[in-house]
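lol so apparently i was supposed to do this last week
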Amino acid sequence: MHSKMITGKFIVIEGLEGAGKTTARETVAQILRAHGISDIVQPREPGGTPVAEKLRELIKQRIDSDPLTDKAEILMLYAARVQLIENVIKPALARGAWVVGDRHDLSSQAYQGGGRGMDSKWMASLRDSLLGSFRPDLTLYLDISPEQGLERVRSRGSFDRIEQESLAFFTRVHERYLKLVAGDSSIKMINAAQPLAQVSDEIQRELKQWLEMSGFEKKNV
Ligand code: Z5A
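anyway here it is w/ Z5A bound
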């Protein structure tokens, strides 16, 4: 029986490309299932709704005759995020489901704020006016150097518009991630440079500890 019922929570996996977010999302879902949580929604950002997936295509596509401006890029990312929050995440949480997302607002703070150098105050006011106080309950940030992350994804062959950015861009994104993680206790840092099995172990430790602290004890079977 459940020792304590709690309502749905919003967990986010963050990190540079190649950090291992896809595997981590599945590891988190497995741990939640082992705790008796079966209604789990796993969206990705940008994306996760029909409209947001269309925006994702536009965001990732490079159109040389009409380069995407930084402002248009951030507005499209937020348009996709608002669609996802209002049409998928909030309804899921309201029915008691858990949401495990691949990227969320921290990505915008790191990529557009750090990578593109967009004004932090403007970014904060955009976020606050569009999302209000809506935030993840827990973020697992998978830390990896840009060099190692890019090396892992290189085997895919083709790169989208953002993946074509310079190493200097990804270094700024990484630096901003580290700064944001240091200032927010709801973000747990995982060493994603380790072999996959060790990364999964670290995720398990952090998540189990957080579930215990949140008052959720493993289902007794
Ligand atoms: N973006 C943005 O700029 N602003 C925003 O607000 C948001 C997003 C929300 C989304 O693209 C792009 O949008 C992203 C940021 C930007 N762009 N860039 N560049 P995406 O969804 O296509 O890409 P991604 O989110 O970065 O996913 P990814 O590249 O697939 O990374 P990943 O999911 O973290 O990696 P993975 O697929 O789990 O692993 C990659 C490979 O590494 C794979 O072969 C694994 O088997 C291997 N791997 C993973 N972990 C390990 C370990 N520990 N050891 C060895 N090998 C490993």
